[in-house]
Amino acid sequence: MIDDTRQRLIDAAGAIFAEKGYEAASVRDICQQASANIAAVNYHFGEKKSLYVAAVRHAQSCADSENPEMTWPADMSPVERLRAHILQMLQRKLEGDKPAWHLGIMLREMAFPTEACAAVVEDYVRPMANGMRAILLDLLGHDFPEEKGNMIGFSIVGQVLFYYVHQPVIRLLIGESAHDALTVQKLADHITNFSLAAMGLAPSLGHSTPTPPITTKAMT
Amino acid sequence: MIDDTRQRLIDAAGAIFAEKGYEAASVRDICQQASANIAAVNYHFGEKKSLYVAAVRHAQSCADSENPEMTWPADMSPVERLRAHILQMLQRKLEGDKPAWHLGIMLREMAFPTEACAAVVEDYVRPMANGMRAILLDLLGHDFPEEKGNMIGFSIVGQVLFYYVHQPVIRLLIGESAHDALTVQKLADHITNFSLAAMGLAPSLGHSTPTPPITTKAMT
DNA sequence: TCCTCAATCAAACACTTGTTTTAATCCGAT
DNA sequence: ATCGGATTAAAACAAGTGTTTGATTGAGGA
Q1: CB-CB contact of A30 with A12 (8 Å)
Q2: Which is deepest, A99, A169, B160, B174, by most CB within 10 Å?
Q3: d(CA A209, CA A187)
Q4: What end-to-end distance do the CA atoms of chain B give, in Å?
Q5: What is the per-residue pLDDT across B147-164, written as a single tens digit (0 to 9) for each?
């Protein structure tokens, strides 16, 4: 059976782990949500912790398969690749078509790491970081200093992650309606334009010229 | 000292809550670290949850008193106020002279909120957000659209928080030595220059085109 | 001195936790 | 039909949880 109880356990566990954290999630709750017996988790995974890492690995393997390698058309300009990259990151996090726990459990792992964090970094974060670095190298020149490039990458990713990690704070801070008005497309355009302007590849924000979405070709 | 064990309990609780999270922290561990009896927490606070919110409130009251209201000299240019503000945020988080759990427990609360989150936002986040908004209004003009201003503020704060929230990921990603090379001063300069350039108030990163630093007053 | 009352302590409480055990069930191969 | 391995089920396990109890302390006031 594809719909094994083992898979049902991983799905239920991921959802509950992502929502309540590792310690607060009980195997009884997980088994009940998975319509499985209490002993099932120990039969299939041996112990609770193994079920947790199985859920994390499943989440990142799904994230891998759901996102088609981020391979952009070769004739796409670096600027447009950056724009598409930022939009995709935001969509992946805020437009939850897939089960929301896939990224929730990984963000929890990245903020308060357990032993599964290293695997997440290697299998999920590093490929994404390499993709970002490739774009930045095309944008800034391949002899750009590595440390500066790292910081620029962190500046971009930090902007994106902020809207996900601290979403509840933003809601409380600016109100529900103002938060709902921040659509993914609007956020992606802002972050892209903000970052491009910081790198000198687009007109700066700040002066209220109704800036149309920048679609300039990259300067090589 | 009037409330001896009560304060010891709050200190021990804050440290353990920040490190292990609410559920994983046991009152027995807390009482042992505080050299108090197991019944002390229930005698002084009634229940575990009240001790937690007491620790959170203590952390934010300390954060308030430790940071002298962020009142800059009146003749300081908005650009320099922004630079000082960013540096101060980073110092507060990464240069731990004070007990590290003061901000650790609040970041945990902001990322995965409990019922204490609203209080943290109102008493700690909102004043800081107002300070940031005041600087941005001086920088961009007091008739700047609110939503755009919010997003710019989030872009700046997101860059800062990234280095704290995802510090373990950064360590794994670029290595210990490269991470240690990212001093607070270096990060503050980068984030400030990056953000100023994005707003068109400083030369852009990316190319060494020495555009003279713009330190003009806000255009109204 | 006696009393009071807040504070501390050891012990036990009732409950949940993760895990194990043992028996029952399914299901394809013989 | 029968066997045997794989899976599920119910119950019990030991350990840990937050919380409560009731006794004990020790300083301050009448």
Answers
A1: yes
A2: B160
A3: 18
A4: 54
A5: 999 999 999 999 999 999
Please name the residues in contact with A88: beta carbons below 8 A apart, sequence gap of 6 or more. Answer: A67, A70
Portion 201-220 of A in contact with B at CB < 8 A: 201, 203-208
Gyration radius of chain A over CA positions:
20
CB-strand contact A44/D, under 7 Å: yes
Which percentage of chain B shows pLDDT scores above 70?
A: 85
Which nucleotide across the nucleic acid strands is nearest to A48, CA versus C1'?
C18
Confirm if A149 and A140 have CB atoms less than 8 A apart. Answer: yes
User: Residue A59 and residue A103: Cα distance in Å, rounded?
Assistant: 7
Confirm if A124 and A60 have CB atoms less than 8 A apart.
yes
Looking at this protein, which amino acid is placed at residue B36? A
pLDDT digits (tens, 9 = 90+) for B69-85: 566 777 788 899 999 99
- In one-letter notation, the amino acid at residue A191 is I
Q: What is the pTM of this model?
A: 0.87
Quickly list DSSP for A77-123: -HHHHHHHHHHHHHHHHHS-SS-THHHHHHHHHHHS--TTHHHHIII
